[in-house]
Model the fold of this input.
Amino acid sequence: MTRPPGIILAGGLSRRMGENKATVLLGRKMMIRHVVERLAPQVSSLAVNAPEGADAALGLPLVPDTISGHPGPLAGVLAGLRHAENLMPKPRHIVTAPADTPFLPPDLVERLEAALPADDAIVVASSAGRWHPVVALWPLTLADDLEEWLADPGNRKLQVFIARHTSTAVDFPPIATKHGLLDPFYNVNTPDELAFAKAFLEEEDG
Ligand SMILES: Nc1nc2c(ncn2[C@@H]2O[C@H](COP(=O)(O)OP(=O)(O)OP(=O)(O)O)[C@@H](O)[C@H]2O)c(=O)[nH]1
Done:
């Protein structure tokens, strides 16, 4: 099976971090660079969902939201689906991951794809039974429905949108590092969480 394209979600406001968390340094690299390095071997191509001109793109194609006013991560999913519609050959799915999850598992895409119950289903990553709906495989056939749904400003919640469609979850175990066990979807929102993440970096990741 051809791998899907990956879209890294970096369109948020980073209010809790106080600066753009995608470009904050985690060890020697920007946080988004860790995500790029973990996702790149698993996808057919990569693009970054962020506002026009954002330096988080790291030279990758930039896919800005088409809906104004910071409508949340689903706007990034929609931008990613529209971007993928123009790729050749046109993929059937995209995979998304946020720019603030630097420990993504190496078998993420393989396991999400293997769990697809139907071609038009959404497959969400989970850990310890908790869903991480920003880390998911999304069928391109959802694009029109998602665009229509987001046209109502009351519709913003990922879980609510996902519940309207066929979906399943794949649970991923904690990663064993020499510093202890770590949730593979640990996400870094605050300076304290950044310090915690730094303590888990392996030397080659620094
Ligand atoms: N495209 C897009 N992505 C968003 C938007 N808001 C959040 N995200 C992304 O969704 C994911 C989860 O976002 P949060 O961490 O909850 O929010 P945030 O705005 O990044 O950070 P805070 O301001 O601290 O809440 C991250 O990958 C964000 O980049 C948005 O309005 N548009």
Notes: The chain has a mean pLDDT of 94. Helices lie at 31-39, 73-85, 108-114, 143-150, 158-163, 191-200. Residues 9-16, 49, 65, 70-73, 75-76, 98-100, 134, 189 surround guanosine-5'-triphosphate (CB under 6 Å). Residues 6-201 form a domain with the Spore Coat Polysaccharide Biosynthesis Protein SpsA; Chain A fold (CATH 3.90.550.10).
